[in-house]
Amino acid sequence: MKILVVEDEKKVAGFIKRGLEEDAYQVTVTHDGAEGLKQALEGDYSLIILDVMLPKKDGLTVVRELREAGRQTPVLMLTAKAATEDVVSGLDAGSDDYLTKPFAFAELTARVRALLRRDGQDRGAEVRFADLRLDPVSHKVWRGKTEIELTAKEYGLLEYLIRNPNTVLSRAMIADHVWDYAFDSFTNIIDVYVNYLRKKVDKDFPVRLIHTVRGQGYVLREG
Ligand code: CA
Fold first, then answer.
1. Cα of 47 from ligand 1 centre, angstroms
2. Separation of 31 CA from ligand 1 center, angstroms?
3. Separation of 215 CA from ligand 1 center, angstroms?
4. CATH for 127-220?
5. Rounded to two decimals, what is the model's pTM?
6. For residue 59, how far is its CA from the centre of ligand 1 (angstroms)?
7. For every one of its 223 residues, what pLDDT tens digit does the chain have, with 9 covering 90 and above?
8. What spacing in Å lies between the alpha carbon of 25 and ligand 1's midpoint?
9. Which residue of 121, 183, 208, 216 has the fewest CB atoms within a 10 Å radius of its CB?
């Protein structure tokens, strides 16, 4: 499997490359955002590890442009700060996960494996609930005849809800299933994403499907 690493700190990039190569991945390193985006668009990578602070083009712009070009390659962002707003910006731009520097190599490889596993999951048939319909192959979503455009993370969250209808899902369960790990301050981000999803899935329709259960979490149900 091919992994692209976009990181301008040569020591960090070298450390990631050596470690991943020991795990038998093929690793390409680029040191600026412009070259990273070019590689990401041209190469057939299974995963991109992308630093946020980069010369020529920052990581958020790279992931946004990659998604705008229709590429769904999983992206693991490397951030220097754990500030919620930075994490939200990164996830909102279309990255799938993030890791705060400095990190232990074992943590990086755990995230890499989780992202690759999720991307390779068997995606199966269309899923329906009420007038909501989701195609796990194309990631398209409709309510009735209206197609709803979702980001990768919004889609992941909705897929988890629709596969567990009428079941209260706690923020910890959502963090674990949709983001692959538990993290306390992550609950803010889940609330932010549920709000994004509601604006798209519920706001313009007569029946609300996504409900908050106070002190417990969220549930997909009719009325
Ligand atoms: Ca950097």
1. 18
2. 9
3. 39
4. 1.10.10.10
5. 0.57
6. 9
7. 789 999 999 999 999 999 998 887 889 999 999 999 999 999 888 899 999 999 999 999 999 999 888 888 899 999 876 666 777 788 778 888 888 888 888 889 888 988 887 765 544 568 899 999 998 777 889 999 999 999 888 988 999 899 888 889 988 888 877 876 555 556 688 899 999 999 999 999 999 999 999 989 999 999 7
8. 22
9. 121
Say how many Å lie between the CA of residue 12 and the centre of ligand 1: 9
Three-class secondary structure of residue 181 per DSSP: coil
Ligand 1 centroid to residue 8 C-alpha, Å: 5
Ligand 1 midpoint to CA 150 (Å): 29
Residue 202 alpha carbon to ligand 1 centre in Å: 39
C-alpha 121 – ligand 1 centre gap (Å) = 31
Cα 44 from Cα 31, distance rounded (Å): 18
Exposed, middle or buried: residue 63 (CB in 10 Å: 0-12, 13-18, 19+)?
buried
Burial call 178-198: b when 16+ CB within 10 Å, e when fewer: bbbeeeeebbebbebbbebbb
Q: Is the peptide bond before 136 cis (omega within 30 degrees of 0)?
A: no
Domain ranges of the chain: 2-121, 127-220
What secondary structure letter does DSSP report for 138? Answer: T
